[in-house]
Amino acid sequence: MTCSHINFNLSRREFFGRFGLGLGGAALASLVNQTTAQGATVAASGLKGVMGGTHFPPKAKRIIYLFMSGGPSQLDLFDNKPVLVERNGEELPASVRMGQRLTGMTGQQATLPMAGSIFKFAQHGQGGAWLSDLLPQTAKMADRLCFVKSLHTEAINHDPAITFFQTGHQLAGRPSFGAWLSYGLGSANENLPAFVVLISKDRIDQPLYARLWGNGFLPSIHQGVQFRNGKDPVLYLKNPDGISTESRRKMLDRLAELNAAQFEDLGDPEISARVAQYEMAYRMQTSVPDVLDISKEPESVFDLYGPESKNPGSFAANCLLARRLAERNVRFIQLYHPGWDHHGGLPGGIRRQCKDIDQASHALVTDLAQRGLLDETLVVWGGEFGRTNYSQGKLTPTDYGRDHHPRCFTCWMAGGGIKPGISYGATDDFGYNIAENPVDVHDLQATILDRLGVDHEQLTFKFQGRRYRLTDIFGKVVKPVLA
Fold this sequence. Notes:
Elements: H1 12-19, H2 23-30, E1 34-35, E2 41-42, E3 62-67, H3 82-86, H4 94-97, E4 121-124, E5 129-132, H5 136-140, E6 145-152, H6 158-167, H7 177-185, E7 195-199, E8 225-227, H8 245-266, H9 269-292, H10 299-305, H11 315-327, E9 332-336, H12 346-370, E10 377-382, E11 386-387, E12 404-405, E13 409-415, E14 422-424, E15 426-427, E16 434-436, E17 439-440, H13 441-451, E18 461-463, E19 466-468
């Protein structure tokens, strides 16, 4: 199905009927989920997605994307390379590098000494997945995971690399992954956005711009909504002092009438998208406090996620919120955990990062499985690129750094129609180049969409005379990783 229009193009009569004088009653009714005979939740706002359904039967209903911003070192976590340990300190062979570009941070180094990981690796599970001792909890669920060890990307610096993963293009301005899903499939919960963003606090070593979860040229209703820690988890959601819920309702009704008149004059679909946002915000005044209230979670849940799960804004707390959002059928839940950019002092830095994410990642997958949600939820873990096999700066027996490396790196997936307990793709003995089964960023995006029942070539939007899609003109589904 090719989507060349958007579902906010309403007639004047439809607009008034949906957003006009009858809005107050519709909003009250919308506080209770309405369900069709097929069991699909219908959003009272009409945000059902332009596809009207999936292209083929889906294996997953939602995505939880754990994005490790900064570029985790695959060579210290997942990609065991004994050759690097044996040849630690030796110069990177020219036959391995093959003249490939380096960043400005190491391009002027006099030498490129290979750095074997100081962390111990072992195989885990029936699939024999290699993991370092930095990830003991992740190792316990190795047979639930699918490791893709042959990812590669085009970008060598953070901003274009993260933008590429989030939007399918290195330049800003395209719709983000979650926005595409919101546009195509719509929301499965009328009281929460289809696309929610959570960012770990106290780990920001590079900026994470709102455009990474933006709508681009899609209607603004599809942009991600950031939930924050603190008194106002969603900015500007609460009524100002002196404004009651009843007066807010009356204001929205009158505003809808004015917007309907403007829509009749201009025909701009963004006008109706704006009204839909107002209505979603009204409903979220009730739904957001409910989803953020973890006080009724049993102690066994906090024990599973770890003590940091009671610390709002931590990665563990965000993983617990991700499970609660998944239970409420939020379509795309994006977690960012920055702090992985270890150009120097990697051993100390990566220990801290793994302490943040290891138990919580294991808890999230385990919790979803225990609640019967993992089979319908696809969990993805990974960053924007990998790290070099040589040391940036001085190499010592206990310390080293690694530069950016787009040539090969690792991510893992679990649940949602992905084959568990396997490793796909491989790098060479030096961990520098891909040896088999390369997977491009667009391939990963196409594969994730496929699990949601979406043909990545058919979910398009016509903008400035061209049809765009998340995977641009590239991408193929990686079928060997599909369950």
